[in-house]
Amino acid sequence: xxxxxxxxxxxxxxxxxxxxxxxxxxxxxxxxxxxxxxxxxxxxxxxxxxxxxxxxxxxxxxxxxxxxxxxxxxxxxxxxxxxxxxxxxxxxxxxxxxxxxxxxxxxxxxxxxxxxxxxxxxxxxxxxxxxxxxxxxxxxxxxxxxxxxxxxxxxxxxxxxxxxxxxxxxxxxxxxxxxxxxxxxxxxxxxxxxxxxxxxxxxxxxxxxxxxxxxxxxxxxxxxxxxxxxxxxxxxxxxxxxxxxxxxxxxxxxxxxxxxxxxxxxxxxxxxxxxxxxxxxxxxxxxxxxxxxxxxxxxxxxxxxxxxxxxxxxxxxxxxxxxxxxxxxxxxxxxxxxxxxxxxxxxxxxxxxxxxxxxxxxxxxxxxxxxxxxxxxxxxxxxxxxxxxxxxxxxxxxxxxxxxxxxxxxxxxxxxxxxxxxxxxxxxxxxxxxxxxxxxxxxxxxxxxxxxxxxxxxxxxxxxxxxxxxxxx
Length: 473
What we know:
- By secondary structure, the protein is mainly alpha-helical.
- It contains 16 helices and no strands.
- The chain has helices at residues 2-28, 33-50, 60-71, 75-96, 123-148, 166-174, 176-190, 196-220, 225-260, 279-287, 305-335, 345-382, 399-405, 408-424, 429-452, 458-472.
- Helix 6 (166-174) packs parallel to helix 9 (225-260).
- The longest helix is centred in the last third of the chain and has 38 residues, at 345-382.
């Protein structure tokens, strides 16, 4: 059936070409060349639209040749017919692209014009930028090595000073105890041994201790800044997970009580979720790359071992590159610079601008290593299905869009456990947004001020200042 249709279409196109030739031969006898060109242009546009904008070749010879091979009969007669059509198709091809045919018939924009620039791929320009970026920075790396030599010391990854951080390591290893305590509280609440007020009280104590305990250990020990930052990040993650675990279980008990009273569930609630408290689900949640608890997660079918190995090699390479930039570029600039408030203003601006490029590279490497490589490796090993750890924040047009796209686990947690609960309790949107930014500012300050033993509230002020920018917009 398809062969017959194609043959009919090819024959129709060929007949249209023959009609076009006959019409043009008749019109050559007249002296109205402009009319001939206009008629030719209209017929060519019609034929191009009939064949979908492709080159106007007759497809019938190919189809009929296949029919000859398949049927094996009338070879002589059909072969002559095919040759005639091929010759006629060649003459049509030659005639169609003659110099008298108009070359410009459609309104088109240049590829880089404002109306067409976002309607096409820019992969070639992106590859060119990557090549230029690699070439320029390779020259800077070679120049730095020739001028200063190899500045990375042998104790960059591990040294005897790292042994002083063993209290922080022990604190990190004991943080799962708070998760076990939260599980016991939820188990008692599920069996209705304690009231909801007591449940909330215990969860407040557990989550508060999960943060205050690492803070006290860091402040009482003289440890490296990197070790303190790592412990505080881990403690903040545990706090966010415990809050989500307690809040979600509380809401599931409330939904179950509503069902017992005769209320119907909405379509957004998954009926497969059970109010039962499972230790296995808690353990999976505590190691999964998410901050929002739920009893069931979307899971992949299997683990791609070769893919995990490739991503792990990328993680090692980019982590080493990040350490190279810090030791080879950032540390020498900071050590050789004066205090910005004690020196010349232009000199301070020059130092800051000189640090901006390596700092940008370190930030990009950090984002790629953590949000893309590490979280995807962890998700693959745990077969965690939802891997939207970030969106295209590089296309964000406002600060609000950037904060909603660059860190999706924290954004989902804020929306699920702070913003919308505030709205459900009749809190105005502006106040709910201030509360969300306040929580974010507090934890940013903890992750910076506590490891550095310096409480200047710079991180807190920076986060809240961004909220002011959003309010003005």
